[in-house]
Write a structure and sequence with these properties.
Elements lengths: L6 H12 L16 H17 L6 E10 L10 E10 L8 E8 L21 H14 L7 E7 L7 H13 L2 E8 L17 E5 L9 H10 L6 H16 L4 E5 L12 H5 L4 E6 L12 E3 L2 E3 L8 H20 L5 E5 L8 E6 L8 E8 L7 E5 L3 E4 L6 E8 L14
Parallel strand pairs: 3-4, 3-5, 5-8, 6-7
Antiparallel strand pairs: 1-2, 2-4, 6-8, 9-10, 11-12, 12-15, 13-14, 13-16
């Protein structure tokens, strides 16, 4: 599947997205060729094309809600629409959902300008194109778990589309096991520093969970798990699997929920208690982000296609695909993962129960030194407990399920 990801396909999607002039959330919804309404209808059309080759597993829709004027970034009531394609899992008992998201809307310097051109090639045509391309390829395969591909609206007006979707998921009890928010993943260079590099991508993840209670935080502190939220484990997973399958791409984990004092569409999921990360290019170029298309003092501004690197976008799309596929094919996580603490000991006894869904061939016990950002050792076992000759004072441990074809679940940290 990684080999099927096409830079040409990604470029064709972005050419189409840019052709709508502006995709501002407040732009026209009555035109067939211009504005956010035409853009979301085009994305729906692409998803429906892919559905024809999915054996009935893929279905698509525009999920809408009316957003009232808020006196800030919405000055009139607006019909908001998220374009959603759902690849239904093949195991009826497996309720897990994995989401890949990009935002469809674009903006100019003035976020309220709904008529001027806002190409949005990279922000966030790139994330939307990645979701479309993953849907194209993955819809021809089957997975036990469900995968949702979504192009949300309203990001630039205040994360409106993702908030609508995350709140709905919480209310309806969706079992979201991981959200991949892709926002600005297709350009290889930065302004000011003039760094050019298409071999690295950033994954942002929170440390202490957004919805953590005081009791949760006290437990986290007592166990030294400030760096081991579920979202951070997902980031570690993305790094391991991404670098396994995608050549010439280093995944750089950034220990922040998002860029400095900024936000994105994964935040509403975190607020609702779901596991979510943000994937972003390594070096942002602010001359080509939130800018009117123009030239000033010899500098060309605007989020234009000419500033994209489609080979880089191909790699970042493949990064998403291989992780989504590995997770959706894997068993669910091991249950009731425990560490024995009855006695002082320089050994560590771990135990766990089988996953709720999927067939586990066995389990990996992962371990790392307390100062290591990534898991350093993986020990395979077919049993449901193991005593390790390593001190829990000096190492962190986790357990993940693995099936016959080698697909690993997310990691679970043991509780005393």
């Amino acid at each position: 599947m990684v080999k099927e990801v096409s830079a040409d396909s990604l470029q064709s999607y972005i050419n189409s997205l840019v052709s709508f002039g502006t995709r501002n959330t407040l732009s026209t919804q009555s035109s067939n060729t211009k504005g956010i309404g035409a853009a979301r209808n085009w994305v729906l059309k692409k998803f429906n094309e892919f559905a024809k080759n999915s054996g009935g597993r893929l279905s698509a829709m525009i999920d809408t809600t009316t957003i009232a004027a808020d006196g800030r970034r919405v000055d009139v009531p607006v019909l908001l629409g998220n374009v959603i394609a759902t690849l239904k899992g093949t195991d009826p008992s497996d309720k897990r959902i994995f989401i890949i998201s990009g935002h469809l809307d674009s903006r100019r310097t003035d976020v309220m300008d709904r008529t001027g051109d806002a190409p949005g090639a990279n922000d966030d045509g790139s994330g939307t194109a990645a979701a479309i391309e993953c849907a194209r390829i993955m819809s021809t395969h089957s997975f036990p778990a469900t995968i949702i591909f979504v192009a949300v609206s309203g990001e630039e007006q205040g994360l409106l589309g993702s908030t609508f979707m995350a709140d709905k998921a919480k209310k309806e009890g969706w079992d979201i096991a991981g959200v991949f928010n892709n926002d600005i993943i297709g350009s290889n260079n930065s302004n000011e520093t003039n760094i050019i590099n298409n071999t690295k991508a950033r994954v942002f993840s929170e440390g202490i969970a957004t919805d953590a209670t005081e009791k949760d935080i006290a437990r986290i502190k007592s166990l030294g798990l400030e760096n081991d939220s579920k979202s951070r484990e997902l980031a570690r997973y993305i790094k391991e699997i991404g670098e396994r399958y995608v050549d010439h791409l280093e995944v750089v984990m950034v220990y922040r929920r998002d860029r400095f004092l900024r936000g994105g569409d994964h935040l509403p999921y975190l607020k609702n208690g779901f596991t979510a990360v943000r994937i972003t290019e390594m070096n942002e170029n602010f001359n080509h982000q939130h800018q009117d298309v123009r030239k000033e003092n010899g500098i060309e501004y605007g989020d234009l296609i000419k500033f994209m690197d489609f080979e880089y976008l191909r790699k970042n799309t493949a990064l998403n695909l291989c992780n989504l596929a590995n997770l959706a094919k894997a068993p669910s996580v091991p249950e009731a993962v425990k560490v024995e603490v009855k006695n002082l000991s320089n050994n560590t006894l771990l135990s766990w129960n089988p996953p709720k869904t999927g067939n586990a061939k066995g389990y990996y016990i992962l371990m790392r030194e307390t100062t290591s950002p990534v898991w350093q050792k993986k020990i395979f076992t077919t049993k449901n407990e193991m005593t390790l000759p390593y001190s829990k004072d000096n190492y962190f441990f986790a357990v993940q399920s693995v099936n016959e074809s080698g697909n690993e679940s997310l990691m679970v940290m043991p509780q005393p």
